[in-house]
Specification:
Blueprint: H1 27-51, H2 54-64, H3 106-110, H4 115-140, H5 142-150, E1 154-158, E2 162-168, H6 185-198, E3 205-210, H7 223-241, E4 248-253, E5 272-278
Parallel strand pairs: 3-4
Antiparallel strand pairs: 1-2, 2-5, 3-5
Main location: membrane
Keywords: Membrane, Transmembrane, Transmembrane helix
Protein name: Chemotaxis protein MotB
Length: 282
């Protein structure tokens, strides 16, 4: 029998309590930092898209996806691999090893993209064609062209489509009668000179009619009808003068959509007739 006075054994019970950190923990800070970083990257991307040009964006894209052409031609030349240099602008696209901004690939050329060199060459050809047209007309119809250029209401200029002759309406010289709307003698005489000059070549022509803007308070704006009627009257007058009908490519009434003086859309200067002697390839 045990002694009652003996000490009882001491039992220690360990209890492990697992409690969440709650709002005093740090896990949410990591998620928040990731979110802020992603937002900063997003706004940086938006800023780059807005602050850079198309060429700069293309350069950035090419930096992350570089394409290095490999020369497949060997001919004992001075370039790499004893052939043409893979970085030469004048041989890169022609050799089929790649394309540059100056020389486009064959697939791009098939879609009409000839590269910067091709576009520049096409623009130069267009300018040369228009200049040749003006030289021919000046040589064959010098008197008519000189009279046109000396008229105060006529301006001749060069565009990418051909030689443009602007006939403006002035307060002291109307092109159309304000009451009847018919062509005045001033416009008829101008059209006769244009026909005389245009007969020296075989190019087609186009006719445009423009009118000034009307006040917005009008119930029915007649600018489209008026410009179309004027273009048709010019066509009829050209037929009466003797201009070949098959050489008139198009007539257009632009209403008040293309003013000569955009700052004052209701100005009388915006009332004009435009005759364009077109290039052969237009």
């Amino acid at each position: 029998m045990k002694d009652k006075n003996a000490l009882a054994p001491i039992i220690i019970k360990r209890k492990k309590v697992i409690a969440a950190d709650g709002h005093h923990g740090g896990a949410w800070k990591v998620a928040y930092a990731d979110f802020v970083t992603a937002m900063m990257a997003f706004f940086l991307l938006m800023w780059l898209l807005n602050a850079t040009t198309e060429k700069q964006r293309k350069g950035l894209a090419d930096y992350f996806s570089p394409v290095i052409p490999v020369n497949r031609i060997s001919g004992g030349g001075e370039g790499s691999f004893w052939g043409d240099s893979v970085f030469a602008e004048d041989v890169l696209a022609q050799n089929g090893t790649g394309a540059t901004m100056l020389h486009s690939a064959e697939s791009a050329q098939a879609r009409g993209d000839a590269g910067e060199v091709g576009a520049q060459r096409a623009e130069e050809n267009e300018k040369k064609a228009v200049q040749d047209l003006m030289r021919v007309m000046a040589a064959r119809s010098g008197e008519s062209m000189a009279q046109l250029e000396n008229m105060p209401h006529v301006i001749t200029r060069v565009s990418d489509t051909g030689m443009v002759i602007d006939i403006f309406e002035l307060p002291e010289g109307r092109l159309f009668d304000p009451v009847t709307g018919k062509i005045t003698r001033r416009l008829e005489d101008t059209l006769r000179l244009i026909v005389s000059a245009a007969d020296m070549v075989t190019n087609q022509i186009s006719v445009e009619a423009h009118v000034p803007a009307r006040p917005l308070v009008v119930a029915s704006n007649p600018v489209w009808d008026v410009s179309t009627q004027r273009a048709q009257m010019v066509q009829t007058k050209l037929d009466q003068i003797g201009f070949a009908p098959d050489r008139l490519l198009r007539i257009t009434g632009y209403a008040d959509r293309r003013p000569a003086d955009p700052g004052t859309p209701m100005s009388l200067r915006n009332s004009r007739v435009v005759v364009t002697i077109l290039r052969d390839d237009v």
